[in-house]
Amino acid sequence: MGGAGDQMRLLLIGAPGAGKGTQAERLAERFGITHISSGDLLRQHVRDQTSLGQTVKSYVDKGDLVPDGVVMDMLRKPVVAAAETGGYVLDGFPRTVEQAEASYAVVRALGVEVQAAIHLDVPRQELVRRLMARGRGSDDTEAVIEHRLQVYQERTVPLLEYYAGREWMFTVDGAQSADAVHEDIVARIRRLTAFTASP
Ligand code: AP5
Ligand code: MG
User: Fold this and answer.
1) pTM (whole model) above 0.90
2) Which protein residue's CA is at the shortest distance from atom 39 of ligand 1?
3) How crowded is residue 186: how many other Cβ atoms within 10 Å of its Cβ?
4) Residue 55: how many CA atoms within 13 Å on its side-chain side?
5) What is the pLDDT of residues 43-74, one digit of tens each?
6) Considering only CA atoms, which residue is closest to atom 25 of ligand 1?
7) Which of 82, 89, 139, 184 has its CA 20 to 30 A from that of 28?
8) Residue 65: CB within 6 Å of ligand 1?
9) Which residues contact 70 (CB under 8 A, 6 or more apart)?
């Protein structure tokens, strides 16, 4: 299975704690594609104290979105490199309508646009439970989790509305076990015409 050039290019959208990283890792392994997490890359820059890391630290710590230009510049190379090999699963980007529009122009020109967008739907109280249990550094405190959820409502939910009705966008019940979520995603991907159309 695979799309044009036997590639797979996926996008995961979900609230903080929805399981984007968990599912992206599994999809990457299953389909031999590269997992690209904007949050993981940003946190790595902060740990390495790069100049980008110094620029973004206060945004990440507070749960605010990092400016679009910074994220776009950081992701351009890894996304293009992944598209040249097996494909990618993007986790955490795009997360606003503005980012989707700006990145579409770039990937469209290269012929490496996303083939499926997967929305992981999880009730709010389960999100909070997962994040409090995980306790990832500075942004998994109660106050910052609250703010991240609010930013998700204000900035990312409009992206879901923007994508709504596209045949390559679908929602999965992310409150199930990680295995069940994974199998649901795979089943839905297999039904998409991008992956079933004969060459
Ligand atoms: P980012 O790293 O993207 O964080 P997030 O969106 O808040 O999401 P998380 O990584 O916390 O959760 P996840 O959905 O990956 O879930 P996970 O699999 O870990 O962004 C962090 C920050 O970076 C942002 O606040 C912003 O500052 C900046 N940033 C990133 N991208 C940006 C962008 N595009 N533009 C601007 N700024 C950006 O799971 C969570 C927990 O639940 C884990 O413990 C896991 O084991 C558990 N779990 C997962 N699945 C299940 C399941 N099915 N059942 C039970 N437990 C589960
Ligand atoms: Mg994550």
Assistant:
1) yes
2) 19
3) 14
4) 12
5) 999 999 999 999 999 999 999 999 999 999 99
6) 63
7) 139
8) yes
9) 52, 55, 56
DSSP per-residue letters across the chain = --SGGG-EEEEEEE-TTSSHHHHHHHHHHHHT-EEEEHHHHHHHHHHHT-HHHHHHHHHHHHTPPPPHHHHHHHHHHHHHHHHHTTEEEEES---SHHHHHHHHHHHHHHT---SEEEEEE--HHHHHHHHHHH--GGG-SHHHHHHHHHHIIIIIHHHHHHHTT-TTEEEEETTS-HHHHHHHHHHHHHHSHHHHS--
Sheet holding 87-91, edge to edge: 34-37, 87-91, 8-14, 116-121, 169-173
